[in-house]
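Internal tracking record. Fields below are filled automatically when a chain is submitted to the structure queue. Please do not edit lines marked as system-generated. If the sequence contains nonstandard residues, flag them in the REMARKS field before resubmitting.
Queue: standard
Priority: normal
Entity type: single polypeptide chain
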Amino acid sequence: MQLQRIPLQRVLLLSFALLLLAGCGYNGIQQKDEAVKAAWSEVVNQYQRRADLVPNLVNTVKGYAQHEEEVFTKVADARASVGKITLSADDLADEAKMKQFQAAQGELSSALSRLMAVSENYPTLKADGLFQNLQAQLEGTENRIAVARNRYITTVQDYNVLIRSFPENLTAMMFGYKTKANFTVENEKAISTAPTVDFNKPAPAPEAKP
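SYSTEM-GENERATED OUTPUT FOLLOWS
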C-alpha cells in the first residue's frame, strides 16, 4: 500500500499561508486574547471570593446590631444582583454587559461600606475576634480585586491596541477578533475603595445590647 503523496504545490501554499498568518500577527493576537481571558478569570475569582465573605460578615454584625435591618437588606440585595450578572470571557466584547457587571459590583462595594460603618456604633462588635478576622479577609480581598482589575485593564489595552494596528487589524477582521470592553471611570472610585473600619475611632453612639 503506497502512502499518498502531498503535491508540492499544496505544501508550498500551506507553508506560504502559515508564514502569512505569522507575519500578520495571528499568533500574537491569539496570545494576547488568551492573556485577556486569564486576567478576566482572576477578576471574577476575586469578586466571587468577596461575595462568599458577605453572609458570614452580615451574620456576625447582626449578632450585635439587630436594629440595622435596612443596611442588611441593602447588602443582601446587592449581593443578589451580583449573583445574577455573569460575564464570561466570551462576552468581553459587550460593553453593555461590562457596564452592568461593574455597576452591580459597585453597588455591593457601597453596601459593604455602609455595613462596615455600622460597626462604629458597636464597640463590642469591633472587638469581636471573628469580626476582625472577616474584616481583614475583606480588606485583603479588596486589595486582590484591585490588583486583578488593574492587570485586566492593562491586558485589554495591549490587546485592543494590537488588533487595531496594521496589518493585525486585517487578521483580526478575518478571524473575528473584536476589541474587548474595559472598566470605565464611572463608579471606578466606588469599586476601587476597600471598605475599612477604624478600630481606634470612638463610637459615636451607645451600643445596643445583643
